[in-house]
Design a protein that fits this description.
Helix content is about 80%, strand content about 0%. It has about 500 residues and is an all-alpha fold. The protein folds into three domains: about 1-195, MFS general substrate transporter like domains (Growth Hormone, Chain: A, Up-down Bundle); about 200-255; about 265-499, Growth Hormone, Chain: A. The model is unreliable at about 1-5 (pLDDT under 50). Belongs to the major facilitator superfamily. EmrB family. Its main location: membrane.
Length: about 500
């Protein structure tokens, strides 16, 4: 098998992979809203314990994605899909019928082990199945899965938890996963080039400790604070292991992750922009629910409904953006998208206690529209510059970088929001005490309680607005970087000239 693109894309095969990847992506965010229900049902007293159902899933995925380049290079794509979907199905069944929390979390870990290679595998097959001039359209279809599934998850989860048992979240996935597995075993064929490669076990250990430490440390920082040894200790260990991992990859002839592809300028630039965008994207996913639920007191299901239009816009725009990329290249689309995203993020920093639902939904949806114009064109342009044989490494690096920077961005934004909220609450409390002292009237306990609640809400609102302003600056940085993007001329690529 050569590394050339196929003469005719295997549409049935891609459809089967789409089903499997969509279910895996959907499952990633499906459980978050159900955590309180699971706590009650399984008698879990500590929220940080049940949070491991999400944190553990993310950790296993983050650890295994870097190894996906090795797996895709060494093993046939049918084997990878069958094993991955089989593990995912097994984990889903374990979770659906788990009699205890231990079995439930084990099921989630098995799910994550199966889901980790689904996205890199689909992306690599998309890259090899379509000619370079149609690659934008193909990656746009991939973006439909990448953006829509995780965003639909919370809304769907909120509705199910409100009307049914939380186990339905797993039970409804079982038939889709089973059908995808059976179709894969029946219809998938091996189209990816493979070669004999050996795995460097020290690199695998360093990757696990490095990415796992960073993901865990930054994920815990938002809830436990930066002063905990569990947080800064794991971040330091992760950073040291990651630095050692990077140095080792640059010395090995067959690295676990070939970081030498950063010598290609457009791939390097697209990687940096994607990481900045990932940070900005997670800001909206964290701050908007915090405002809608905590400040405004809107139910989780209604909050999910308010963000659903933005999710649908991102999903529906992705294939359209892919076609625009094929026609106009990445820079014009991405610049327009980032201008829209930066301006709309700024408007989200102007939220008030009585901002209308229409304002919140409109600004959030416009922001999602801008984001949809940026992500896939930038990523596709970067992948276009690297040789086809390096695609597994390019997709693995992109997926890993986005997961790590997403976790880092979330932790930083939560920290900024909490710090500003605390500072603002202290200022407002001092002002209220001065006013009470000046009036000479001693407030009752009920008035004090009401005033404290109002101060808490006002401080939280101010913290959210300030953090959205920081996110505006982050979006502006991505906008500046996008002006340096150039459309890749594939005829100058090494493997293209060799054909």
């Amino acid at each position: 098998m050569t590394t050339e693109t196929l003469k005719k894309p295997p549409y049935l095969m891609i459809a089967i992979l789409f089903i499997g990847t969509f279910v895996a992506f959907l499952n990633n965010t499906l459980l978050n809203i159900a955590l309180p229900s699971i706590m009650v049902d399984l008698n879990i007293e500590n929220y940080s314990t049940v949070q491991w159902l999400s944190t553990g899933y993310m950790l296993v995925s983050g650890i295994l994605v870097p190894a996906s380049a090795f797996l895709i290079t060494k093993f046939k794509n049918r084997t990878i899909f069958t094993v991955s979907m089989g593990l995912f199905l097994l984990g889903t069944v374990m979770a659906a019928f788990a009699p205890s929390f231990g079995i439930l979390i084990a099921g989630r870990m098995v799910q994550a082990a199966g889901a980790a290679t689904m996205s890199p595998l689909l992306m690599n097959i998309m890259l090899i199945s379509f000619p370079i001039e149609k690659r934008g359209t193909a990656m746009g279809l991939f973006g439909l899965v990448m953006f829509a599934a995780p965003a639909i998850g919370p809304t769907l989860s909120g509705w199910i938890v409100e009307h049914y048992d939380w186990r339905v979240l797993f039970e409804m996935i079982i038939p889709f996963a089973a059908i995808s597995l059976l179709l894969g075993m029946w219809k998938l064929r091996n189209i990816m080039p493979t070669r004999e490669v050996t795995i460097d076990y020290l690199s695998l250990v360093l990757s696990t400790v490095g990415f796992g430490g960073l993901l865990y440390g930054f994920s815990m920082a938002g809830s436990k604070g930066w002063g905990e040894l569990e947080v800064y200790g794991t971040i330091i260990i992760g950073a040291i292991a990651l630095a050692t991992f990077i140095v080792r990859q640059l010395k090995l002839d067959e690295p676990l992750l070939n970081l030498r592809i950063y010598k290609y300028p457009m791939f390097a630039l697209s990687s940096v922009i994607s990481m900045v965008m990932s940070v900005a994207m997670f800001s909206g996913m964290i701050l908007t629910p915090a405002y809608v639920q905590t400040v405004r007191g809107i139910s989780p299901f209604d909050a999910g409904l308010m963000m659903l239009p933005g999710a649908l816009v991102m999903g529906l725009m992705s294939p359209i953006t892919g076609k625009l990329f094929d026609k106009y290249g990445p820079r014009l689309i991405a610049v327009i998208g980032l201008i829209i995203m930066t301006v709309s993020t700024y408007y989200l920093s102007k939220l008030s206690m009585d901002s209308s639902y229409a304002y919140i939904i409109t600004v959030y949806t416009v922001r999602a529209f801008g984001m949809a114009l940026v992500m896939m064109p930038i990523m596709t342009n970067g992948l276009n510059q690297i040789p086809m044989k390096m695609n597994p490494h390019g997709t693995a690096i992109n997926n890993t970088a986005q997961q790590v920077t997403g976790a880092i961005g979330t932790a930083i934004f939560v920290t900024i929001m909490n710090a500003h909220t605390k500072s603002r609450a202290a200022t407002l409390a001092a002002e209220a005490q001065e006013q009470a002292a000046a009036s000479g009237i001693q407030p009752t306990e009920a008035q004090i309680a009401e005033m404290t609640a109002q101060i808490g809400q006002a401080a939280m609102l101010d913290g959210i607005n300030f953090t959205f302003f920081v996110a505006t600056v982050v979006s502006f940085v991505a906008l500046i970087l996008t002006f340096f993007v150039k459309r890749v001329d594939v005829t100058k690529r090494e493997d293209y000239q060799a054909q």
